[in-house]
Amino acid sequence: MRRGPARPTHRVIALVAVLAGILAVVGIPAVATAGPSPSSTLWLCRPGQPADPCGGRGDAPVDCFYVYPTVSLAPGVNAPRSVGPEERLIANQQAEPFGARCRVWAPVYRQSTLRGLFSARSTADRTAALRVAYTDVLSAWRDYLAHDNGGRGVVLVGHSQGTLMLRTLLREEIEPSPVHDRLVSAILLGGNVLTRSGSLVGGDFTRTPLCTARAETGCVVAYSTFGRTPPADTRYGVVPTEVSSPSRPLPAGDGYSVACTNPAALGSAATAPLRSRIAGRPVTGYNGRCTTGAGPHVLQVSGGDPVPAVALPQLPNATWGLHLLDVNIAQDDLVDLVGAQARTYLAHR
């Protein structure tokens, strides 16, 4: 008998528990170490690679360039250029499902580690660590374009620190170049992507608007999820006064809004059912809507039985909301959206 979508049960809690373990060791002071400059790309995921946590599939018509979030348990400020279990876990949970719609490429990068994130003594220290991380992502992107892209359309997929890397890459490297014509879409989650207030563009990007329809390409999907009303000191959904950037400064301050695009209801603030994927299995029961107005702009999640959205763990604290589940909470909606965008992109080539 064919199984239908599962309700959110212990699988939700199990995945959150595993990911929470990654965050459990963060308060330990770190010693700064940038590591050697990369001489070649080390790929966490690439089509045809053995034991690829993203599935290694190579028959999809477009590519995904995935940059994973902050997961490294390394003791320094920057992670080493090596593949650990935490990188494999997060790539499998976040990126592997996209392999049904795109060939997934994911570089290993010397990201700012969890310990470095929580022990940075100043904005300058944080920025220096991010600059090292971005050097690897930029190098991998250029390597991929030169040797592997072959003119194919590309979906950018990032979460948290990965979104910060891709915000910078899209803003500084892709938008000013002809490669922007190959952008199928950019899925930039958990990272406070900004637009000009009242506009679909401006802010982070000048040529790449927010997505408002499934058949639209060359656009951005961005949101951060909360199961409860965001607290006054929320990290997400409000325009920051200052942003640690790996390159030239990103927008901040007045005149901007944080983007929220619900992949289940693009271009709308309506509540819509979300198709989640938790621990590799489809889960139904959650709903999402993008909040608007003067408060934080987030993807507000409701519903859920027997694990209601309001009971999902907020880690490491309430100011982060459901940050660890940003991708998984609407995973199947995102994957199907990439499929629809890829079809539109290919039809117009």
From TrEMBL:
InterPro entries: AB_hydrolase_fold (IPR029058), DUF3089 (IPR021440). SUPFAM superfamilies: alpha/beta-Hydrolases. It comes from the Bacteria. Gene3D superfamilies: alpha/beta hydrolase. This is DUF3089 domain-containing protein. The lineage of its organism: Bacteria, Bacillati, Actinomycetota, Actinomycetes, Mycobacteriales.
